[in-house]
Amino acid sequence: MCFDDSVNDVWLKFLSPINEAIDEFVPFKIRQKRDANSRVTKWYPRLETSTVPSQWKAAYICPVPKVSTPQTHTDFRPISVTSVLSRTMECIIVRDYLYPALQAPTPKLNLSDQFAFRPTGSTTATLITILQSVTSLLVDNPYVAVIAVDFSKACDTLRHASLLHKMAQLSIPDNVYNWLADFFQGRSHCVKYCDEMSDFLSTTASIIQGSAVGPASYVVNAGDLTSMMSGNELYKYADDTYIVVPAVNICSREAELENIEKWAARNNLKINRKKSLEIIFTESRRRCTVCPPPPLTDIQRVTSMKILSTTVTNHLSVSEHVRDVTCRCVQSMHALRVLRSHGLPTESLQMIFKATVVAKLTYASPAWWGFTTADDRN
User: Fold this and answer.
1) Residue 154 and residue 218: Cα distance in Å, rounded?
2) Alpha carbon distance 293, 299 (integer Å)
3) What SS3 string covers 158-191?
4) Could you report the per-residue pLDDT of 271-313, keeping only the tens digit for each?
5) How far apart, in whole angstroms, are the C-alpha atoms of residue 212 and residue 195?
């Protein structure tokens, strides 16, 4: 990334000597210029006034094609580009204030079932917890239902008022909360495509995609979403929500969905029942035949489900996932052979191999490896 002197001066203008914690976020050339200036030894954007510059509140939406020949607006993925200075400030606030506050939330916010955007959370931890819950419940139940709930544009329609109400319950300084309140107010965005740019329009909802505060904000907002019946469990990875219902509580499925729909309505969200899925897990080694419960209204029942990009069947088999991963790795190996034929150095080939093939093979492997068969491992 290149920075001319005018850009560097902007950084120096907005940053003040308070805290050296920002160093890891500041480009090297700017740090070099700062260190050469004896009057500036520590940087940190000021929080005392709890105000956000108006320039930081503007976002540019850059459409990126999803397909090779896009035809309609649905063939584009909107990428939100926000201020670098703003993201730098947000990273510090998230790391120094929000993350510590998430470790000890108030009783009204339950974050133990949320695994995204947290220092100790991951997709692997989420998958391990869900599969452990299912296998434990199958000990005393003939089957376990898991419902994958899909929210329509969850990150784009979140109401700021409800988010800030929950933010106020966190143990963060008043000036930090006021800064966050100002951060979500008066925002605007425009669409920039090729050499054309639309007019700016105000943004009254969403977690501000492209921002560093956005992911942590959604975690806080979903903190009061819990299961309503004892024995049912709810697990979340960002907006991916899974309801685990044992056979003994199978009649509560619709009530759980209604509970989530009421929560969604309060937060300006909406469940997409057409994209939500249900799977009934059973123990394949049981000798008796299990009669599955009746399907839910408007929710498709499947025999295999992708849980955070890992395919699991209703008999807790991951053979389909292993075949899919193996097929994708074969395609990557073909690409590596083409690169080698064009003279790419061995060290570069090894780096690409680790970033593609090894990463695909080992993704969430601690969660699903124990469900593989001898044929899968071979």
Assistant:
1) 9
2) 13
3) CEHHHHHHHHCCCCCCHHHHHHHHHHCCCEEEEE
4) 999 999 999 999 877 666 778 899 998 899 999 999 999 999 9
5) 27
